[in-house]
Design brief:
Length: 176
């Protein structure tokens, strides 16, 4: 068997390979994190500050929204569960969006935050935007797909998780 030796036209720089491509790869998910984090913080705060949203009935209320989508949702049982306490559900949804958004922006417990975002998006897709026709008009499915890379990869750098990992590694080296 014959092996050829390939020479890399771009050998790693003396800094251990931390070139532009490496930096770009480490930061590839940052724009997605910023977009999803800001969007979810905004969505949660918008719900919490909208006096009409956190009502059982009335125009723009979570209760009326849930009743309007009950028959067209993929999982009516989820809508029925929300309708048992619409204001509590709306408050939990809004608080969850804020928590997910802040965790995503900071990169703190990033995989857990992304999983929370994915679950929120999945539940909204299966209930509120399920009947969108064609399906790609419903944005919740797109948000669900956008969360998946963050669930899988977490938040490399810059993130609180990366800083905590570096701190743990340093402590482990110091205790040797």
């Amino acid at each position: 068997m014959m092996h050829s030796t390939r020479t890399d036209p771009h050998p790693p720089p003396p800094d251990g390979g931390r070139d532009r491509r490496g930096t770009a790869a480490r930061h590839a998910l940052l724009p997605l994190r910023i977009f999803l984090g800001v969007t979810f913080v905004y969505a949660g705060l918008d719900k919490l500050t909208d006096s009409a949203f956190l009502q059982e009935t009335g125009p723009g209320s979570i209760g009326d929204t849930m009743r309007a989508v009950r028959d067209s949702s993929a999982v009516p049982a989820l809508v029925n569960l929300a309708l048992e306490n619409p204001v509590g559900f709306g408050s939990a949804l809004a608080a969850g969006e804020v928590a997910v958004g802040v965790g995503t922006l900071l990169g703190l417990f990033a995989r857990a935050a992304a999983l929370g975002g994915a679950l929120i998006s999945l539940s909204l897709w299966l209930t509120v935007s399920w009947a969108s026709d064609p399906y790609y008009y419903g944005n919740d499915l797109v948000y669900l797909m956008a969360w998946i890379p963050l669930v899988l990869a977490g938040a490399p750098a810059p993130s609180a998780d990366a800083a905590l990992r570096a701190r743990r590694r340093q402590r482990a080296r110091d205790h040797r």
